Amino acid sequence: MMRLTCPWCGPRPEHEFHCGGTTGIQRPPLDCSDETWGRYLYGRENPAGLHAERWRHTYGCSQWFNALRDTQTHAVHAVWRMTEPMPEVPR
Known about the structure:
Elements: E1 3-6, E2 10-13, E3 18-22, H1 34-42, E4 50-56, E5 64-70, E6 76-81
Antiparallel strand pairs: 1-2, 3-4, 4-5, 5-6
């Protein structure tokens, strides 16, 4: 089982959290083309390796936060609050 560290509550088991997908995706303006809107809705990367994701501590404090997770090993390399910049992580 994967363990995540909530910035407010500390380390917790994976089943307490909900993944909200890739972090940092910008919604396009309402007057964008259908092609741009379609890419926003359906075009997501599926990287092998480090991936910045948005998580919610659903069965805890209910706060959203970001995590940098390796999609191959599920190792979490960094966790930071939504209002903070992504920390530097040695590769």
